[in-house]
Specification:
Blueprint (H helix, E strand, L loop, with lengths): L3 E4 L4 E4 L8 H10 L2 H18 L6 H16 L16
Helix pairs in contact: 2-3
């Protein structure tokens, strides 16, 4: 039976992640408070940030930036958006 969480990002009860997706305290907070759907949205946004800003996950400064964006995306005011990005309309 899948585990359920009240997703902090989507503000609804939904299926939780199967495992901690990131190391440390941030990963644990995400595991406890983020649903699979919101995590997939983050992965898509992270991919756009990496591509648009020419980031390398091997670069410690770039990893730190992405971690800060992940925390802001889920627990803050929201992450940076790629230049010219217009989110899809809800409807």
């Amino acid at each position: 039976m899948p585990r359920s969480v009240h997703c902090i990002k989507l503000d609804k009860d939904a299926e939780g992640l199967d495992f901690t997706p990131y190391p440390g305290a941030l990963g644990q907070r995400i595991f406890e408070n983020v649903c699979k759907e919101a995590w997939q949205q983050w992965l898509a946004l992270q991919t756009m940030l990496i591509n648009e800003q020419h980031l390398s996950p091997m670069n410690p400064e770039h990893r730190k930036y992405l971690e800060e964006q992940m925390e802001a995306h889920f627990f803050g005011e929201g992450s940076d958006q790629p230049a010219g990005y217009v989110p899809p309309e809800k409807g």
